Amino acid sequence: MKLLVVGASYRTAPVATLEQLAVPPAELTRTLDRLVAQPYVSEAVLVSTCNRVEVYAAVSGFHGGLGDICAVLAEQADCPAAALANHLYVHYDAAAVDHVFRVATGLDSMVVGEAQILGQLRDAYHWATGADSAGRLLHELMQQALRVGKRAHAETGIDRAGQSVVTAALELAAGHLDGDLAGRPALVVGAGAMGSLGVATLSRLGAAPLSVTNRGADRAVRLAESYGATAVPMAELPSALSTVDIVVAATAATEPVLTRSVVARALAERAPERGPLVLLDLAVPRDVEAGVAELPGVEVIDIDRMAALLADGPAASEAAAVERIVGSEVEGFLTWLRGADVAPTVAALRGRADDVVTAELRRLAQRRPDLSDDQRAEVARTVHRVVQRLLHQPTVRVRQLAAEPGGDQYAALLRELFDLQVPQTSPVDTVPDVVETDPTPSTGGER
């Protein structure tokens, strides 16, 4: 089995395309089932956030696996695969490992260094585990990615250089509001992970009064009570919009919540001297309807705009330190992978030797029925010992050679020389009984 990553992110696709590809939680299990039902895909983990939709897969062939994954993504987006081609990136084997580790450390995030992606990777891994789509190879890859991500944040200052998407978005919003959010009335639409981080961050920045609205009123009430905010019924959204300066929209709705008509009504009730109404749309699919940005007195900051404004990222020294960690960890994983890949071949070779010895001992027993049990046992021990000594050095050496770049050729040569039939299984010997968890909350970052 080989590793394959196929995806689209804020780097390669506009929000409209990410909206098409986005997989809501209710559809995650079904989509994972569709992936592993494909002929060339045996394992799959699906990451779907506001900034990326990626499939990590174990495949039996590159071209077949790529075609299978693209077909599922095209079906999810309800468009021809050719229409997605320009927005997708593909990473295979070593490049796939490098990409996953870069994602885990926050190097590939819109806000470079943000730690929330770790929680989102953990959640994706748990979904795949629950759907039984993460097999032996992806179990190992995901657990190592979570470990590498935590190592990068523990050993470097990437946390200080990076921030959450919510924090970065609010800093951009402050630029439209005299550079300070303190004392500015604010509204958060959505009480999920991103909405919760929005309320917490606005509260920390001194925005007030602070309001929360959500389709599920109970969640809005609980979140508001935690931060001394006010819960507003969703039916009163236009009135609430007319009284605030900044809105963080982060729902899981499949259709825009802040439509042109709703925002226009709010603007009609809003006092002209209040200045611009700043709308931060952190949702995919978008919460703010496209036409809203054309209304006078409104500033809309969405994922596309943030990607352009946040292109510089953290200090180069911090990113470089994380790059070095990723490089060493990728090489370590590949070394393990190459060594583990030859294990089934070595096992098959030893199995073939055992079969030959067993057959010859059976023939000896038929030809020499006069031998005592002790004599037969001594002959068996001697023959087994000779075979094991003959195989020891070659199998040790092939493991060493297989751990080097291009080492897969040695396993292939063994299979050819001894006509070994090796099942096409993932190289990991055991599946972990307990899924590794990560203490980082899956809030903010790439929603």
Radius of gyration: 28 Å
Task: Describe the sheet with the most strands.
Answer: 6 strands, parallel
Count the E strands: 10
CATH superfamily of the largest domain, called what?
Glutamyl-tRNA reductase, N-terminal domain
The end-to-end distance, rounded to whole angstroms, is 30 Å
Work out the count of structural domains: 3
Major β-sheet strand ordering: 7-6-5-8-9-10
Mean pLDDT: 86
- Count of DSSP-assigned helices: 17
| Weakly predicted, low-confidence segments | 425-444
CATH architecture of the largest domain: 2-Layer Sandwich
- The third-level CATH topology of the largest domain is Beta Polymerase, domain 2
Indicate the overall shape: elongated
Estimate what percentage of residues fall within beta strands: 5-15%
Give the helix level as a range of percent: 40-55%
Order of helices and strands: EHHEEHHEHHHHHEHEHEHEHEEHHHH
CATH class of the largest domain: Alpha Beta
Q: Could you say which structural class the secondary elements and strand pairing correspond to?
A: alpha/beta
Question: Could you explain the architecture of this structure?
Answer:
44% of the residues are buried. The protein is built from 17 helices and 10 strands. The longest helix has 52 residues. The protein folds into 3 domains: 161 residues, Beta Polymerase, domain 2, CATH 3.30.460; 145 residues, NAD(P)-binding Rossmann-like Domain (Rossmann fold, 3-Layer(aba) Sandwich); 79 residues, no CATH class. It has a 6-stranded parallel beta sheet. A 4-stranded antiparallel beta sheet has the order 2-3-1-4, sandwiched between helices. The radius of gyration is 28 Å and the shape is elongated. A hairpin with a 3-residue loop joins strand 2 and strand 3. The protein is of the alpha/beta class.
